[in-house]
Write a sequence for this structure.
């Protein structure tokens, strides 16, 4: 039912992509007035007829909502549904090995290069 609702939301709005929230999004407590945040990470609901570009090899989810968002595309995390995932850099596969080898600072610096006016470390 949740997936169907997300697809209906995408079809009825100009949103490019919507994601589930993550545990870190709720640090500081739950605020039921904040329904969505302007970000998108780790889960992606999108429509094939509204493509968008992923930027970079590292931190590409963040880079994508930053760069595409700067040109007016809408990306959101819906705060009322939360993704339960393993701790960062604890599971094998994906970019875990690259992130461990080069460190979180280097990974995050890619986002500064993509959108220096809106990102800081």
């Amino acid at each position: 039912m949740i997936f169907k609702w997300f697809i209906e939301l995408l079809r009825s709005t100009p949103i490019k992509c919507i994601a589930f929230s993550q545990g870190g999004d709720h640090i500081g407590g739950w605020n039921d007035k904040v329904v969505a945040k302007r970000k998108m990470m780790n889960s992606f609901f999108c429509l094939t007829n509204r493509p968008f570009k992923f930027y970079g090899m590292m931190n590409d989810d963040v880079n994508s909502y930053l760069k595409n968002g700067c040109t007016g595309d809408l990306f959101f995390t819906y705060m009322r549904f939360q993704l339960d995932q393993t701790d960062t850099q604890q599971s094998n596969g994906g970019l875990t090995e690259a992130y461990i080898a080069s460190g979180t600072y280097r990974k995050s610096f890619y986002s500064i290069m993509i959108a220096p006016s809106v990102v800081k470390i």
